[in-house]
Amino acid sequence: MRALVYQGPGKSAWDSVPDPEIEDPGDAIVRVDTTTICDTDLHILGGDVPEVRPGTVLGHEAVGEVVEAGSDVRTVRPGDRVLVSCISACGRCRFCRTATYGQCLGGGGWILGHLINGTQAEYVRVPFADTSTYPLTAGTQDDAAVLLADLLPTAYEVGVLGGGVRPGDTVVVVGAGPIGLATILTAQLYSPGRIVAVDLAPARLEAAKQLGADVLAHAAQEPERLIDDLTDGLGADVAIEAVGRPESFGLCTRVVRPGGHVANIGVHGKPATLHLEDLWIKDVTITTGLVDTYSTPDLLHMVAAGRLQVSPLVTHAFAFDRIQDAYDVFSHPADTAALKVALHREPSHELLLPQP
């Protein structure tokens, strides 16, 4: 089969690799129909995730059809259309029993495209298929479903729920890339008083406005002063870091109010300074997290029922064999206005939306 193979920092290739095979009775082989690219994939290519070894197939999000199932698989069978979760769960260990699947001790967690071959391929082996795939209803479109493999659960669990967003809160989201926009989208489920989006790119700030942000703040134009004015000097109830850079994390710690919450979603490749000399007295709670995907079934129901409109997040689409072009578009959002790109097995889906 063909797959995107990591060849070391800054290097990858759409190459021929052996077809995946059942290695454990709990495995399933899924024919990938739609996959996508995550900021985490860019961090891998940037050398920020050294556990990924050269030769690994990248990707951890997919929608496809089960073509083979191991003898222990009970909940899906060949012919089923499924969502492949970014998190694999053994379902038996200490953490899986408390729905903390991202910390699975039984061989799961974030393994696809990280510790084992991933989903940016024509076929993928999915361990623990019973607990790591989700059957899809006929009316759920691939481009919407694939966003529920990682993007929406991460924003919802690590940002919105982890940050404790409540009705009436002032919520500041630093970073209006895909994960920040998904945070803005899902934060509205809790009726915050206002959502402030902070970013450097005007196109992304405009996307934030379209998805529900109430206030837009350019990151280079004193967002701290704006937030101070909006809150009468109090600060944000919840500040959500959605970039993964020291300066954006620092901004969150400066704009949060005493007793407030900083929720870090971004993947950090460099250390960030924590100014405890300022924060210790403010009763600030800081949380980090790898998504657990316990919310995926609920999010799927909301998307199927039309309660969450996620399709505006997909701005570009490509055929599999143009994945290198897709990476180029996705990694230069200031030039392309790209949010999420969808990669489809069928070339007829290419350029679902016109490129800017």
Automatic annotation (TrEMBL):
Residues 25-130 form the Alcohol dehydrogenase-like N-terminal domain. It holds the Pfam family ADH_zinc_N. Keywords: Metal-binding, Oxidoreductase, Zinc. The lineage of its organism: Bacteria, Bacillati, Actinomycetota, Actinomycetes, Kitasatosporales. Its cofactor is Zn(2+). It comes from Streptomyces humicola. The keyword Oxidoreductase applies. Belongs to the zinc-containing alcohol dehydrogenase family. This is Zinc-dependent alcohol dehydrogenase family protein. Residues 178-297 form the Alcohol dehydrogenase-like C-terminal domain.
